[in-house]
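Risk mitigation, structural track. In case the binding assays with 6-O-phosphono-beta-D-fructofuranose fail to produce interpretable data, a predicted complex structure has been prepared as a fallback.
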Amino acid sequence: MDKIAILCSGGDVSGMNPAIKRFVEYSFAKGLEPYFIHGGFEGLIDGHITPATYPDVAGIITRGGTKIKSSRSPRFHEARYRTLAANNLKAQGIDKLIVLGGDGSFRGMELFYHEHQIAFCGIPSTIDNDINGTDYCLGVNTALEVIKNAIDSIRDTASSFRRAFVIETMGRNCGYLALVSAITSGAELCLIPEMNLNIEDYKGCFESQIRKGRDYFIVIVSEALQNSHAVSQWFEQELGVESRVSVLGHIQRGGNPSVYDRLMAYQFTTYAIDALLEGKTHSIICYTKSHFSFKSIDEVALNSYQLDKELLALGHEQFAPSQCQM
Ligand code: F6P
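Fallback model:
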């Protein structure tokens, strides 16, 4: 029987466990022998590889995180450790690998493949939604649901006082989570690196809104800007509105995987295993304009992600200073 292994790398997402479950079940269905690599590339380097069984994945579909654990692996940046990793796979007779991870993990896989030619398929998995070549990364929908619930709850308390709430979302350098959350939660302002807005430009408009009765503000800020506290102070000093910062943090990565992420996990994993069985050796399964397609690791890993132009246009339409209603 051909042997296939799966690993999770980088920030975990809700959707990894459903993908791991599908991996085990579909591997057996296809006559493959499935293996787990525990602890991402760190575990691969250290040889933490075990056979996977049905009981291992029973009940995990409802859980966030990853049963087989993840890691960020500085060692995998070094060629000698990638050689150790490749030798561990070869020693077990594993010649097919599924990698759930983000762009950093895929850059590592790009090197690994070119050095050791072990066939793999990558599944884009990061709440940041910042992988070039795919519109959707596993875990994003669940993260957006968590953020939506958090903002809705904060709105309850914001509206009970006269306060501005500056809510900081994750996303690393990418404003996707912040922008989608701001549009869909009725925020007054959204600050992300891709839009380059100057808060001073809203002063007159917000003053006018306050005079007409607005008594609270919801502002969504991407962590990339690192200015949540400065924005909060601006509301206090320039507008005289008491302000609080709420950094949502790692709650955005956890929680019960949404229906959408369970379905995407199922489909991504099925496509990834099929790709390896069809002889694809170094591809990423992408989801673009509602269709699945394979892209080469070089195309995905060596280019940086740009926020979708149509989404960005919506952001400008909603949040540009000229759109602020006095
Ligand atoms: O890449 C996912 C992510 O959650 C980013 O949004 C965030 O900047 C980072 O990981 C946090 O990393 P860590 O969990 O290592 O603190």
